[in-house]
Amino acid sequence: MSRTSDRAINRRKLLALGAAFGTTAAAGAVASHDGMLGGPSRTFTNTLPWRDGLTDAPGAVAAGGWRFLNGGEVGFLTAAVDRMIPPDPTGPSASEAGVVTFLDRQLAGDYGNGAHFYLEGPWAKGVETQGYQSRYTPAQFYRHAIAAIEAAVGHAEGGKAFRDLPADRQDSLLKQMESGDLKLDGPITSKAFFTMFLQNVLEGYFSDPIYGGNKGGAAWAMIGFPGAHYDYSEWVTAYNQPIPVQPVGLRGRLDWSRS
Amino acid sequence: MAKAMPKVDVVLVGFGWTGAILAQQLCDAGMTVLALERAAARTTPDNWATTFDQDELRYMWRHHLFQNVKYSTLTVRNNVNQTALPMRKLGSFLPGTGVGGAGIHWNAQIWRWLETDFKLKSHNEARYGKAATEGLTIQDMPLGYDELEPYYDMFDRICGTSGKAGNLKGAKQPGGNPFEGSRSADYPTPPLTLTYGPKLFEQAAAGMGLHPFTHPAGNLSEPYTNPLGLQMGKCTYCGFCEKFGCGNYSKASPQTALIPYILTKPNFELRTECEVLKVERTPDGRHATGVTYVDASGAEYFQPAEIVALTAYQLHNVHLMLVSGIGQPYDPATGQGHVGKNYCYQTMSSVDLFFEDKNLNPFIGAGALASVIDDYNGDNFDHSGLGFIGGAYIAGMITGARPIEMTRVPDGVPKWGLEWKRAVAKYYLRNMSLSVHGSSYAQAGNYLSLDPTYKDQFGRPMLRMTFDFPDNDLKMAQYCTDRAAGIGHRMGASHVHPKPRKGPWDVTPYQTTHNCGGTMMGTSPADSVVNKYSQSWDVANLFVTGAGLYPQNPGYNPTGTLAALCFLTADAIKSQYVKAPGAPLVAA
Fold first, then answer.
1. Considering only CB atoms, which chain B residues are within 8 Å of A90?
2. For chain A, how many structural domains are there in total?
3. Which of residues 295-334 of B touch A (CB under 8 A)?
4. What is the domain range of residue A85?
5. Does the distance separating the beta carbons of B429 and A223 come in below 8 Å?
6. Mean pLDDT, contiguous 10-residue spans, chain A (259 residues)
7. In terms of domains, do A20 and A85 share one?
8. Interface pTM (ipTM) of the complex?
9. How far apart are CA B115 and CA B400, in angstroms?
10. Neighboring chain A residues of B260 at a CB cutoff of 8 Å
């Protein structure tokens, strides 16, 4: 069976201790969003539950280097994302927008570690309508899937890596992954990987620049999304008119910071 | 050994909308109320301030405010012949967690049921014959619209709901929903202002002889002070409502409309990070003595109470009933038992529209910003010969245009590559999706039970969901989506792509967080789990709130009706139950 209650209670103890240390070490570091990751039990009477210094603002990723991906993975992903979102005068390619950096930071962090996935056993394949049934975290999923894809590509292409193939061949391989026709060794299907991968590429291209992609808000500019604006009151009835607002991100005007 | 805590009058299991309503009502009546919330305390300035709220990745795709399936999930399957497997990541529905629950990230679409929705089975059989309900296990509610109306009105006053009455004290009003039941008062605030997309819908629908009106919204059209003295601000149409908190105090939620008042009450206490494991009872099983809960350190407590109220999300209320052994679990093989029976969802369809010459500025939006028609909902239209009952509202709605989720492209365009990129750039400002928000009617094979294999983090069996769309509902979805497509053509869209809901139900794509049934109310223990006051037939000092009370789900967002039922429950406790504590409010 999946977990015993003793293990669960030990886990909660550990998390409570960690949260307590976290509070003394760095105010503001408490993950209060989903409760079960974080704080100790609290009692509120006659007071609003607000505490100074615990604002749950997001952190930005640091530029430069790789936190999770190895060199081969960077090569595969850079080539693949630029076939999914290629460069053209409409807007930046995925890699130009920083999507590979985004993927690296996501896979190195909570998302990659499966912080919001249930991964306990027993595991079964199930039917398609039962959704994700892998025992892998997204980080493990990427690691195994990319290795299996490169093995399949190398076998078919005389030892070449995906990044060394011509663009039309890369496109046809991506289409085979999308349909699941590319057969991979191991438990991960190319279709399951592609589904997760495409979603993550869109996330990187269109999310706030603080997460490493959408550099300078260029993907937002391409489509006409003004970003993290909080008040459109004066343009509600500006029917069929362009809205003359400067795009902003969570760190303010996008041209104030290009990192 | 669980540590015994001092006894309270009322213990609430979960502190979202219904927990907060009961807390406010029962504290004002002088009762001592304790709320146990499994997850964290959250506030507007701490957790969704305007400076960082507009973050699609974090809130929507990384589930920042949602239930974390790592610690709390269920197993799913389409039918009894499949083996249920865990929902390993969120998808089809997005329950909340923590103080405020899903009341933080809801759209604030506030609806009342039609008068006929309250007598669904008898009404449809009277109009269309018994064959019309064959294959469905729908049933009538144990109360009617008129009995609930004052409580609907209470919830509107608490929320400051924006809208325009269509039926005021029996007189039809222009600009409102002509199909609604009679209202005792108009909405507290006027309707929201329509953006271009919803305006095009309104014009097209009116031109077709339909009856468009502006969607009733808990996104406030103007500043409002509710009867508890709590102030809410005017909505700024920022487009980050659905799946997000509101940093502007413009969306009705437990945090904006109730909790600041409740926390000033000396007879109220909230304990967070405290998860209730079980409802405890006297040896004869007829009386709840309190609840056992575990805090964040892993310590167990016994919390005694005169009244236990299950005010968690529908799925958790059903789970707690089952793991506490209260009532008879439903068995689809025999049809016996009612706990877990009549699990229903919402049959969501849509029509994607693309325009060549119209800039909709779809990023300007609000959770319930729509022009909507109710002409094809419930029994507002003649179903003779259609082969189904029920219906949907059709909404030209723009909640915003968060680009990871809402960069739609016309059918036939690939999902990636240069052609996709150019289509996204061309159509981002020029597309919208009509919502076809359909009813979900009960059938014998759809139910909730305990899973035989998978255990939760406390060693309890997980909840198991067995669900697929009944044929009746799929036919309804096709019919209503076709009607919506007709409106889309009239709006002048160059591409009209109807997406009627198809089976089988799939746990992956987001549909809606409108899980219903499993603790349904009825007229006697022979047809239900609780009476019309949400009081358990088996344990008279146990009350259960939420959408689990619905024997089936009409074509409306559930919060308005479940909130009204909760105010009715509070009234019954205050005015009747306290005179004879522990006695049934309705004779079995």
1. 421-422, 425
2. 2
3. 295-298
4. 71-217
5. yes
6. 35 34 31 50 78 78 95 98 98 98 97 96 96 97 98 97 98 98 96 98 98 96 95 97 91 72
7. no
8. 0.96
9. 32
10. 48
